[in-house]
Structures are given as C-alpha cells and as structure tokens.
Amino acid sequence: MRKDLTYTLAINLKGYLLLILYILNLSNCQTPTAEWLLDTPNTATSVNNQYNGGSPAIFTDSNTLGLGANSRFIGNGIQYEGNHFSCTHTPHGNTIDNDVNFSVEFWTYINVLNINSQILCKFYRNGGLLGATVNERFCIGFNTGGGMIARMNRNNYNSGSNVQSNDLTGCQYAEGWNHVTVTFTKSGTCGFLSACNTNIACYVQTDSGLVTTDTATFNDQINDDPSNGAFLCVGATTSNGFLGGYGITDEFTGIMNQIRYYTGTVLTASQAAAGYSTNCQSYCKICQPVGTAPYQCIQQQSKYLQKYDFILPTYPVTMIHSDTSGYGFNLQVNSNFAFTPAYAHNQGLFFDTTFGAQNQYLYSTGSTAQAAEKNTFTIETWIRPTSAPAAGMNLFEKESATNTDYIARRFSSATQMQLVINGQTATLTIGAVTLNQWSYVAIHVVQTTGSQSQICLKFNSVAMTCSTVNAVFAESGTSKTQIGDGFRGFMKSLWIYDYAKEELDMAKTFKTTGCTNNVNGNTCVRCPLETGQCISDCNSNQYVNSTTNGCTDCYASCRTCWAAYYDNCYSCIKTPGTWVFDYIKKCSSTCGDGIKDDYESCDDANTKNGDGCSSTCATESGFSCFGGSFNKADTCRSQCGNGIKASTEACDDGNNKRGDGCDSQCNIETGFTCTTGSPSVCSSTCGDGRRVGSEQCDDTNIVNNDGCSPTCTINTGYNCTGGSVNSKDTCQEICGDGKDYAKYGCDDGNTVNNDGCDQNCRIEVGYTCTGGSSAVKDTCSEICGDGRNFKLVANQCDDGNNINGDGCSSTCQIESGYYCVGGSKYTKDKCQETCGDGLNFGARQCDDGNLINGDGCHSDCTIEIGFACSGGTTTGPDTCSEVCGDGRNFGTSACDDGNSNNGDGCDENCIIEFGFLCSKGDPYTKSVCKQFCNGRRTFAEMCDDGNILTGDGCDECCHREVGFTCTGGTPTTADTCIETCGDGRKLNHLECDDGNLISGDGCSSKCAVEQGWQCTGGTVFTPDICSEICGDGKNLGIYQCDDGNVANNDGCSSNCQVEKGFSCKGGNATKADTCYEICGDGKNMGTFIYQCDDGNTVSGDGCAKDCTIEAGFECAQGNFYTPDLCSEICGDGLNYGKFQCDDGNNQDGDGCTAYCSIEDGYKCAGGSKTSADFCFTLSNPSITEAYFSKNNKEITLVFNETILMQSSWNLTNAWSLEMFGPLGRNNYVFTWNVTQAARYKNPLFQGFKSIIIDFDCEQQLFGNKNKIDRVVININDRQYIRSYLQRAKMINTSAIVYPYGQDDVSIAGATTGLPELVDTLTYSLIYASYGVGFVGAMFGYSMMDVWLMMQGLQQVFLFPVSNLYVPSSLTTIFQISMQRCPRSTAFLDNSADVLTILVYFFVFSMIAEIIRMGFEENKSLNNSLQRVKSSMLPGYISFAYCKIAFNSHLNMRNLNFESNSSTVSSLMAMGFGALCWVYILYTAFQAFKFYREVKLLKRRDPPLSNEQMRDLTYFRGNVLFQEYSMDPSFYPVSLFYPSILMFKLLVVSLLAVSFDTQAQLTGYLIINLLNLTAVLLVMPFEVRLLNAQLIFNEMAVFVIYMQAHMFIPKTLIQITDFRQYAKQFQMIIVFMVGVNACFVIFSKVTQIVKCKSVARSKPNQLPILPTEQTKKVQIKPLTINTVRDFDTLNDNGEMLTSRGLLQPSVRFDTPSSDNKQTIKSAIAQPSKPISQLIDQKKKESAQSRINQQSQKKKIAQNKSQVDPSSYYDSEYISDFSSGEKNADLSYKSTPKNRRR
Predict the structure, then answer these.
(1) pLDDT of residue 24
(2) H or E segment and range at residue 1491
(3) pLDDT level of residue 1439 (50, 70, 90 thresholds)
(4) Is residue 820 classed exposed, middle or buried when 0-12, 13-18 and 19+ CB atoms within 10 A define those classes?
C-alpha cells in the first residue's frame, strides 16, 4: 500500500512540478503595465492597451492640447509627419505612473534625424484662473546629431515647467527602425536636508546593426498627479507661454510601431536585449522576436497605396490592369494598344514612343485620390530604358482633371531626374543610366512640417540624395494616375508604399551579387532581393523560350508575344486602325484592304472574284498573285509558264524562269527572239551588241580573233567585259597569262613589276625579254655592263663595263677580294679592294686579315709607325712586327732605348737587363734605364727587395712603403718586407687590420678574419671594420637571430632581426637559429606552417588552438597585419551552431535554404559537429469545424492545433465572405468582423484553437423563405493564420458554414437535424456510466466495463478527427476535461482528460488512506478500500494507455525545442512514448509470471479453484488480471490479451500520426478486423457480459471506420453532400454509447443486488480441518521483503527467491498426541541473517519433514471446504499488492510499518 501511494504521489508530483517550472519560466519575462500595438488599431482612430482592460487607449489626436494635426494609421504603425500628435485619453489608472521606478520600451522608424525631436512625452494639463497650462513630465527624443536626450521636469506635476535635458547621446539613433529602451530608477528621498536623484539608462539598437547604451543622472525626481490625469503623447512636445498659451516644438517625423510602459519595473540590459532579435529575415538586421525564427521584419508589414505588377503569365483578358493594393485604383489598357504600352513576356510593359508616332502610357479608370490625405509615401519602380533618358520622359504622374500635376516623377536629362509636388520642383542627380539594363529607382516623400516636404531619390546603388520643397502633397477633386508618358523602355512594376522608406530599406530591396541567371539565361548586375533572380531582358518582339531557356522571336504579325505561334500575340506589329488586337490572342486584317497578312493567300485591294484573287483572298485557279506585303496589295495575272502561248502573252516557253528569253510574266526579254509556237523557243542574237542568254560576249560584230568570236564566245587569251542586255562587250588581250599575241611588248605569265616585264606587259629598262608566243610566255633577263644594278640574283654588280679584274667581272659577278657598292637602277657600282680580308692584291700597303689598329697594319690597310709588314699575297695576309731599337715602344717590348746596344739596360732584343730599371717608354718616347734595386741594399737605399714593384713593402725607388717592415738587406743580400699587423692600415697582404692585436673582435691578433665575421673598409689610411656575418647560420649574440640565410618572411629577416609573428631560438656560435611562426597572435605569415591564425589559441571558432582550420570552417583574409576571419561553411553537413541548419547541400526547397536558414513550414534537427541536420515538414493548421452559434450571430472556426493570427491580418487582405441562398450569390446584405482580432494576434495569450467571427445579416438565417443556404469563408491568403509553435501556415482555402440547425456541428444540427434531446441523452449516458462505475468500484467491483466503453469512444474520436470531417458532439466530455486542466504544454493539453482522471484517482487514494489510518483496526473497511483501488487501477491503465499512446507519438512526430514549454512537452512525449512500448513488455512479463505461479499452485494443490489461485497471487490475480479468463480453452492466451490490445493501440497511433487519411482508415479496418477475430476466438474476460461488450465495441468501431471513408478528404470543408452520411455516422455513435451504457448499468446493478458487499470481516484463525489432530503453524523468519524476489514455490510449499533462498512460508506439522493444541496467531519474527536460517534448517528433524509431507496431503483434501473469502487475510497469504512477502498471520499484531 505504501509503495502504491508513493508511486501515485510521484506521478502527480511530476505533473505539478512541470506546471511550477512553466510558471517560473513565465515569471522570468517582465510583463508591461501598458502595451500598445500601433500597427493593430481597434478603431479607425484608436488602439487599445493590451492590458488593464484596454485602458488607456492611444488616439490619433492630441487629446486636449489642441495642437498640431491628427496622426494616422499605416501598415507599420502610426505615421507622424512633422506636426502630428497621438495621445492617450485619461484616466489611465496606474498603468503609466512615474511616481515609482519605471521603464519605457518602443519601436520607432525615423525619417528626419538632423533636427531636435521629441518622440515620446508625458504631459499634465492643469486648468487655472488664467487658463490651462501644460506641464511636461518627461520626454524621450534626440538632438541634431541623433543622440538621445531625456527631458525631465523638476517642478511638481501642477507647478509649471522647469525642464532639465539629460545627455544620453551615447545612445545613437539612426534613420530607419530603432528599438529603444529607457529606464528611470529613483534614488534617495527628496527633502530639505536630503538629496534625491533619478538614474537614467538607455539601450538603442538600430537596423543598421549599431548597438549603443548610455547612462545619466537627473538630480531630482518627477512625480505624478494623484488623479491619474496625465497622458502620454507621441510626436512632439509643447512649451508654456503667457496666460497658459503654448505651441508645438521639437516635432518628430517618422513612425511609431509599438510602445511598452513598465510601471514599477526597471528593465535590465538583458531584458532590454530580449525585446529584439537579430535572427531576422533578409530585409532587416533587427526584428521583433514573434513567431518562428528567422523572424519577420517590421518592414514586411507595410501596406500599399497603389501597387501594380505588370508581368502577365499569358495574354491580357481584360482591358483593366488591376491595382492589388486593396484600394482598387485600376489602370486602363487600350484594346489595340494605340497609346498604351504593350505587354512584354516576363518583363512587364514595353513603352515605345516610336510606335504609332505617339507617346504611350497607362491611365487610371477613375479618380485615384486617397480618401484621407497621405502626405508621406515611397514610390518604387523597376525600369529598363531602351533609349537615353531625356526631358519629358515621365515615369509616374498624378494630375488633376485639368492636367495639373499633383506629383510627377520624370527624367530631366540623361543624368538627372525631376520630382514635382504641387508646382514645386526638385532636380536630383542619378548619374549615367545604362541602357537595356534593369534599374531600381525609388523616391520617398515625407512631410516634415505643415508646409514643407523632404524628397529623396535612390537610383540603383547611387547614394540617396534629398531635397526640401515648400509644398505638401495634396489632392483635391479628381486625381488621375498616369504612368510612362514619354518613357521608352520596359517597366516591371510600380509600388507605392504607405510610408517613407529610408536608404537602408531601399538598399535591401535589391542586391548586386549572388543573382541567379534570369529565365532566358543571362546574368545581370542587380536583381530584386525577393526573388534573387535576374529579370528577363529579351527584346520587345521576343519571348522567353522555356525549352531553350533563351529569347525567341515572335510571330511576324506580333509586336509582343508570349510564344512563337500566330495566336500567342500580346500586341500587333501594325499601327492601330489597320490591324486590331481582338482578344483572341492573334492579329488579323480585313480581306480586300490591300494588306496581305500571313493568313491570306493574296489581297488585291478588292473583294471581286475572277481577277485572280477571290473575295476570300484566295488565289484563283489559273492565276498567280504576287507583290503583296504588309504595305502593298497583290498583283494577279493569268498563269504564265504552262507552255501555251496566250494572246496576252508575248511568249510562253513552258516555265517561269527569267533569263531564258521568256520571263516569268511571259514577256520576251531584251536581246532574245522567240518563236510564236507553243511552247515558244527563244534564242539570243550574236553580234547585236547585247549579251544575253548563253552568250559569253557580244562586241557588235562577228569578226574572229578580236577577242569575241563569231559565235559570241571569248577567244583564248582575251577577256571581254561590260556586256549586258543594253551594252556591248569590250575585249582585250589578257596581260600576264603567259601567252604573247604580240599585242604587248612581253608577257612573262604574271603582272609583277621589276622582273623585266611590268604589270602592263611592257619590257622594263635594263632588261631584255625573248621567246614569247601564243603558247609560251616570255623570258626576261637583266642586261650586264649597262651600268644599272637591279639587285637581282643574276647580276651581283654592274660597273658599266664587261672588264675582268676591276672588281666586277664581265658577267657582273663581284670578284674575290673586292666589294662593290652604289649600284641601282640608275647608277653603276663602284668596286674596291677589300681591307682586312687577309688578301693583298697590291693596292694596299698591308692586309693582316683584320681591321684592328695597333697591331702594325692599320684598319685602312696602311703600315703603322714603328712596325714592319711583309708576306702578304692574293692568297695570304701580311705579317707585321714592332721595330726594336727605334726608340718607340708600343707595348710589345719590355723596353726600347733607341739603339741595339747591350749593357745599357735594354739589350738588342729590347729586353731589360738584370740590375737595371728601365722606363717603359711609349710610341713617342724611348725607354730610360738605370742600374737600381738589384737585390743588394746600398747606403742610398732604404730597402732593396730585388724588384721594382710597388705594394710589396719596397717600392720601385727602393723606399720602404708605409705599413711595411723590411729587414735583412745588406750590400750582398736583398730585404724581406712584411705588412705590419695592428697598425690600422690594410695593404691587402693581411686578411684584415682593425688597428689592434686583440682576438675575438672579428680580426685576430694575427690579422686574420675570425670565423663568423667579415671585415671591410680597410685601406692604407683606415682600419677594417669587422661585423658578425648575417645569414651564415652562426649566432654570436650580435644579431637577434641567424637562421643560415638572408631571406625575408621566414622568421629571421635579411638583417637577422626576428620578424613580427615569429619566434627564433637555439642559435649559437656553431648552430643556426630555428624560427617558428607564432600561433594565435593574429598574424598569418603564410609560411604554410599554420593554416590559419585568428588571434587566439581557442578551438571551436574555426581556427584550432594549433592554428589548423577546423572541419566545417573556412578561414581567409589573414596576412602579416590582420588575423584570419573564420566562418562556418554552409552546406557541408556540419552544424556548429552558427547557422540555423546545415543539411549538407546548398539547395532551397528541402527545409534548409542555400544560406542555411530554416524555411517556413519546416523543422530541422540532429545537426552537430559531425552530422548534418535532418529537415522535415511541420504540420499545418487546418479548420476542423465551422459552425454558427444558436442565435446565428457568431461563426466559430475550430482548428486542429493552437494557432496565432498574424499582426498584418485585417478584414480586407486575408478573408472574404460570400452568401448563398434563394436570392442568389452575394445578394444578401450582411456585415462581419473579428472583434477579438487583437487578442488572437497577441502572442502573450499563447495562441488559440478557435476564432469567433461576428456576423449579422438583414435577412433571417433560419425559418425565412429567403434564408441563406450557407456562408463560404474564402481564405484569400493562408499565411495570416499560422501554427503558434511551428509558425506553419494553414492549409485550408475556404470553409463552408451552415446556419444553426442546418449543419453537422452545432448542437441543433450535430446529428443532422436530430433533436437536441438526443445530444443531451448521449452526454447523460456517458456521465451515468461513469457514476455507476464508480459506485460499483466502492463495492469492490471492477470498472473494466466503463473503461471498455471509453476506450471504444477513444478509438472513434482520437484518431480520424484529425483528418476527417466527423461530427464531434460526443467529444464535449473531453473538451470539458481539457478546460479544467492546466494547459502548460501541448502534451499536457492533449492529455488533459487522462491527467484529470489521474488527479481524481490520486485524491480518492489520499482520502482512502486517511480513512484507513483513522480506522486501522477495522480490517473489513481497510480491505474494502484496498479492493476498491485495486479494481480501479487496471481499468484506468487501459483507458489512459490509448490516449497517451496517441498523444506521445503525435508529439514525437513534431518535436519542438524552441521554447521551454515546447521542450518540456517534447521530452514528456518522448518519455511517455518509450514508456508505452516498455509497458507492453512489462504486462507480458507479468502475464508470464502469473501463468507460472498458477501452474505451480496447480501442481502442488490440484483441487484449488481459480478464485483461490487468484487470491494466492493477489497482485497479479486480483489486480492486473482480475477480469481475464482462466478457462482452459484458450488459457494462457487470454492472459496476454492486454499486451495484444496495447500493441494494437500503438500500431493505430503510428497510423494516426501519419496524416495519410486513406492509409489510416485502411489500417484501422485491418487491425480492427484482426482484433475482432482474436476476441471471438479467445473470449479474454472471465465474465461473459464483458466479452459481449468488447465484441460489440470492436464491431461498432469497425462499422464507424467503414462509414468514415465517406468523409475523405477534409482539407476543404464541404458538408452538403455528406449530410446523410453524417446522420448515419451520428446514429451509430449514439447507438454505441447507449448499448455500452446498458452494459455498464446492467452489470453493476446486478452485481450490487446479488451481493450487497464484498467487504466482509475475515477471521483471524483458519477453520479447524476435519482431523483429530490440530496443526501447528511454524513461521520462517523474514529475510527479504520485496515482491520482486518472489519467484516460485518449492514442493514443500515454501517460497523461493531467484537466488534460491527460502522465504517465509506457512508449514503445517502434525504434533504428537501429547502436544495437541489449537492454532494460535503467530507473530512474524524479526529478520535474521541467512546463516542462521541455514542453521535452523539443518536442525529440523527428519521426522518433521515426514510429518509435513503427510499433512500436506490432508490439507489438500480439506482446503476446498474453506470459504474463499477467508483467504483475503489468511496467514497463508503474502500481501502481493503492497509488494511484501511476510506472512500476515495477525493484522493487529503486525507492526504498522509492515501493514498493507
């Protein structure tokens, strides 16, 4: 009992805990005291507070201020145009108090930011003797720099104004949408001796992505009036004047969308940030977090004043182009496109100023003036100009009846656009316009004051420019719209928004990158953001061919078209008035109008027959018509060419060919003669001077060899030209054909000049030509010796003679050893001997074979001074040598002293003699020799090293050189000179000299360069400077690093400094440094050591801690100065949380977009760092019921799930209602409204499952002859109703509602006209069955019959009702239960009836436990209460299992973890779903255990009855399987029937959540039929009446499922054809309820009458068995007390555990005759250790075992005489229901903690 109670408490506490968690979650969100959704007005002039019963409302007036103008509602909120006000009306209660801490939060759109403006103010108006004064309490606005200013009044609320401006300019506004939060926190107490202040904090988020915050302190506090008479205003502030006068100041221009006021609450920074989201759709960067992410932008709620989309899918079916803004300002399209543009395929309208020689434009069908002035708006257009913009090209105009412009937008030049408002003009520059390219052009007009407007222009990506005009847009009287007058090009659309878009919003309308190719395959530079696809750019006379994805020309008669055939025209190519567009998709003309179109064989400008072209424009037989075109009529003639010469024919040669003498019109052609026969034979005349027919020439004669022969063929070697029908040929000999007829001087077969025979076949000067004839060409050769050289191969030279030996031979060839120059066509060559060729013909002094000077033979072949040359011949060169002894030295000799004497220092061979020093001499000076420096130092010499070299220590003068030391010289020996080390002089004999003898500084003490150093700069006068070598791989400490090279960007630079981003270490005097790139310093050096560097060593951000790119990321842009930027890869199937989803591809339409955001109607889950997301479609809301109220004043639409109405829903854009009845369609006068629309739109109510429409019709809906048949609700746009949790749009397109009593849903019509009494009776039977069942349970009887009844009804209503239109009156009981239960999650909501009954069961259990504890000694009462609970539990489990199985699996199909409540619901669904499957196994296991227990009992005690065995296995026998049959026929199959039934319900649940209605019903029928067969075979229940009830329910459910097929499908509710089926369906359900109620009532009444109570008192002793011996009860000590340890009974009747240990059991021993006694109540002994039990077991005597066996047989013979009820508390029975196994021999003597 205790465990049952604990389990029940745990189940209920879990449910309550979930409710508490949900409530705590809601408490984390601050609730405002006032909230106004300004985009959802409640009336035409006001919007209610969402709290406090709607008070105070904000009105579009200034309350009692009397200032400015009234504001107005637009799609995004309330528009303020410079001098507009909107205020609350008092009283407001305490909703907007400022006596306490408070916060203000609002969404505002700013149009003008460069002026001081107050957005939101609170005022108190104080009436007085001198008039009313206005007291400003506080204001929130901005200064000219866009910084926030908060104004607060120091004075009392009724003491005038003393306003202090508090600087919060750290909070920066921006043009466009801003989310603003301002908090006011009071500190201290204001008093004479005490200070007080107000701390102000602000948080501003802009749509440009800027997030700013700031704080300020107001050194005072503001108070509020106790009467709550103050009011909140938006738009400006007011200043006091003398005698209470005041005026409007600091006007605000823009939009206010939402205001929240928090009295008594100071929002934190996180709470302020929770008011907006950056997970938005592509139109914005901040948005309101309402709905499903990515959230909708406020911009998307905007409305239109006029909206035209000019793209047509096929051809225009009406002359009206509709306005889709809702205002109906339609445009007129001329029927033959005379002055209106033509539709162009996939592009919109084509305006062509050249067509028809007039401008083309669209004009409105009526006045387009707005009902109320709307002075702020935006006009957007996509245009593709085809000619350069110029003045007079209008895009948009609104003008008066007298053609005066209210507003105009036009080009003023090729680079400027002009905007006109009521006579005021602004000209703005747009830059160069690219022709034939789609451009986005938009203007916004915003009223800034009562008389001024700001006009701004945005053209493509050019920065928006603005101008102010002294005018406000206003329309009076008729206002006509005109589009495109004078414009030439294409126009796709024209949208006029009801607010002024800022540049930030305009720039988001299009994009310039990432555009997909258009439908004809071309790319573009910009495209609409909405589609992301380039707009088609075909020519106007082309269409987009879907097969080739390219542009294809239209049919010839079509000016524009949508396909290639003659009946696919949009407009015609002919000018209006000639051809008309007849709205049958083709262009046609009239027969006989002289214009031949493609459908006429001919058109001869008349409708006469017999003239060749018939009256139907068909060519008549025997005629031919020709010449007809779009501009010319046909000419028809009799048929020519048939070979029969008619009288009208000059000839007829049997064909229509021209040029054969008889032309195509049968006229004799010039130059021919034709016979008169048939057919005519025509021939040309030779010699008549006319070349016709087959004549090759005709030179007016028939003379031969003049070029044209007597047969008019061209003679060989001639060419004849100029001949025609009207002129003769001129024949000439052909020059250059290689045939010489002596007409020319020569003919060498070509017409090339300079080859002897020129181009005119004349012999050229210097040539001779011979050998030519009529068959052989001439051969031309150059003349030799005439003094002309044509530079041909034949003559190399020509010196004017034929003499050899003068350089040019007699054959004009250059002779060896000569060269000839100067020859040309006009001059002869001059030849000279060649100098330097090594040949001497005697004309030169010498020729040594070269032209080098200084070698004896000069370059002009003359002998040089000081040389002698000889030996040159005509075959060999001269040899030249220097003359020795002539006193000239050219460098060849060591000396030349001018003589050939020896002993004077220079010998006869000009060699310096030893011991002498001779000067070198030169070509002009002889050498001078002296005996000196001979290796023997004299007293006159400072040194003598035996040479006269300098630089070796002893110079040529035998002087010791500086920096040297010379020693060892004597008169007989030479000196040895060495360079001095360490003197700071470098003379190149030492490696270095740094001026010291210290080693280790680069230059050693021996002046050798040390390893790792380099020394430079040393001269005779300066020492070496030594430095460490950079790049040699040795680091001596002078440099930061040395990596063995001088390359940069490897860590150690070229000057051995450590580079930024690197670290170098390890270098020393013998080893180079090793440099590593630093990971995490934000510098990517590109060394390929690291893949990335993002400035940190944190993994998980794309660049790992070891600077490698992590899987799923890509990193770029890193360099020497900036870190890498890593971003998650979209489409790789790895989701790190940066994207909403990643399904492994970049395709749209599969749930996850190409940009990895979740698409509407999908949910994605399962993505991780290692796996892709799986996306699946969400369920869509659908209308399941639609019915009228009893008074026909309300229509209720019931949905299959919780829905939320979108804020943009209104009566005109979402739904429309139509009436049908005897008066005809739409001839009924009615009104309708959804007065609770604001409530349905408010997400704080967490959605609704039904919507109520207020309806009123002047004609009676019921009982009148004109009563309506039905009302059809057309769902024009399904996106306005969406799922609350999943934001999926609804699927219905319409709903049909029937008046009360005529439908199948209302109470009167729930059974298709059956009386309401039937419904009442049905409810009564259900309630009665519950009542009787509970009463029976109080007497201990099972409620299985009640649960069978409810389970049958569950199968009828829980499953098909989701997808079928089924009458649902009987589900009221479940609906009532749900309304009484908490609705925290979807799972709890759908399982409310189950949880409700569980709560009742828990309460009953608690009451029963209290009663039992109060009357614990009344065993009968205690046993009865236990029996009652036991009888209720199995039935409840059966009832609850059906509902929980369905709800858990339905929720698992739509798991949602986006909110706390949905997460709890999803987790509960998963848990309960798994529990359903586990419980099947648990039930089957218990059935198997019960079967084994009964089997062992039967084996041990065969005479035991079924009731006794149930009692002996109490928990299973009398609780789990108390009603199930133990009949041997199908036993133990009947015990497993609960598992079979639950498995059936699980399969049905799986079918139900599939949402495939046909598959559902088919599956239901099959499963139900199988289950019905099983029931008929098994008969699972012990009581026959229960079997009969079960069989009846299964048959009824089967019939109902068969009937349910009549109600497929249900996506569009149509009831008319199903009324008869619905009536039958309803009757079956009513019959099912009635029969089940009879089963329940009859069963319970019978049981109660036959047996008043089963709660009888039970004896404490067993009856004495009929034997002479009494029995002694021996109690085994307890060791284990859990029911799970029980496994079986041994052959001795003792209970064994699964571990084989003996459990306490009752054993009957036969005592000896001298020890007879009655059985006494045994007391359970305390538990003993297992070891003691074993010892006690061993001590039992063998006699006791024998006696026990014999006594066992006697007991079995007498147990059948025992009353079964005595087993209920017998000492022999263990209390299985509480899980204890101890023998309860005496209830009273049992300790309380062990009682049942």
Answers:
(1) 38
(2) helix 1460-1500
(3) low
(4) buried
| Cβ contact 1411:1421 at 8 Å | yes
Rounded distance between C-alpha atoms, residue 186 and residue 189, angstroms? 9
Grouping H, G, I as helix, E, B as strand and the rest as coil, residue 880 is strand
- Angle formed by the axes of helices 1344-1357 and 1619-1650, nearest 10°: 170
pLDDT tens for each residue of 943-983:
888 887 888 888 888 888 888 889 888 888 889 898 889 88
DSSP string covering 366-394, please?
S----SS----EEEEEEEEESS---TTEE
The pLDDT score that the predictor gives to residue 142 is 97
Cα torsion for 755, 757, 760, 761, to the nearest 10°? -150
Centroid of chain to Cα 770: 90
Domain boundaries, the chain: 31-276, 303-509, 883-931, 933-979, 1183-1297, 1316-1650, 1672-1794
SS3 896: coil
170-184, 734-748, 810-824, 1067-1081: which is most confident: 170-184
Name the average pLDDT for the chain. 78
Q: Which residues of 1216-1255 are buried (b: 16+ CB within 10 A; e: fewer)?
A: ebebbbeeeeeebebebebeebbebbbeeeebbbebbbeb
- Asked if pLDDT for residue 1720 goes beyond 60, the answer is no
In whole angstroms, how far apart are CA 982 and each of 876, 1003, 1016?
63, 9, 15
Assess whether pLDDT exceeds 90 at residue 1082: no
State the maximum Cα–Cα separation within the chain, in Å, rounded to a whole number: 184
Q: Is there a shared CATH topology between the 31-276 domain and the 303-509 domain?
A: yes
Does residue 1422 sit in helix, strand or coil? helix
Say how many Å lie between the first and final Cα of the chain, rounded.
5
Instruction: Answer for the pair 598, 586: CB distance below 8 angstroms, yes or no.
Output: no
**pLDDT tens digits along 648-692:** 678 888 888 888 888 888 888 888 889 888 888 898 888 888 888
**Encoding tokens for residue 1710?**
């036969």
Residues in the chain: 1796
Outline where 1415-1459 has alpha helix (H).
Answer: 1419-1453
pLDDT digits over 126-170, tens only?
765 444 677 889 999 999 999 999 999 988 877 777 889 999 999
Going by the DSSP 8-state scheme, the letter that residue 296 receives in this structure is: P
Q: Could you confirm whether domain 303-509 is CATH 2.60.120.200?
A: yes
- Cβ neighbour number for residue 329 with a 10 Å cutoff: 24
- Neighbouring CB atoms inside 10 A of 1204's CB total 23
Query: Helices marked H in 472-605 — which ranges?
Result: 503-507
With 80 as the cut, is the pLDDT of residue 708 above it? yes
DSSP letter, residue 151? E
1318 and 1630 Cβ atoms separated by less than 8 Å? yes
Give the whole-angstrom CA distance, residue 694 versus residue 708.
14
CA distance 846 to 865: 13
What's the DSSP call for residue 1265? T
Q: Letter for the amino acid at 1637?
A: A
Examine the pLDDT at 1685 and tell me if it is beyond 70: no
Spatial separation of the C-alpha atoms in residues 68 and 1402, rounded to whole Å: 66
Q: In this model, does residue 1650 exceed pLDDT 80?
A: no
pLDDT at residue 1372 greater than cutoff 50 = no
Determine contact, residues 454/111, Cβ cutoff 8 Å. yes
Half-sphere exposure of 1302 (CA within 13 A, CB side): 17
Residue 1780 corresponds to which tokens in the numbers above? 């204890």
- Tell me the Ramachandran region of residue 339: left when phi exceeds 0, alpha when psi lies from -120 to 50, beta otherwise: alpha
pLDDT of residue 207: 93
CATH fold label, 31-276: Jelly Rolls (2.60.120)
**Residue 1255 forms beta bridges with which residues?**
1232
Q: Is the pLDDT of residue 924 over 50?
A: yes
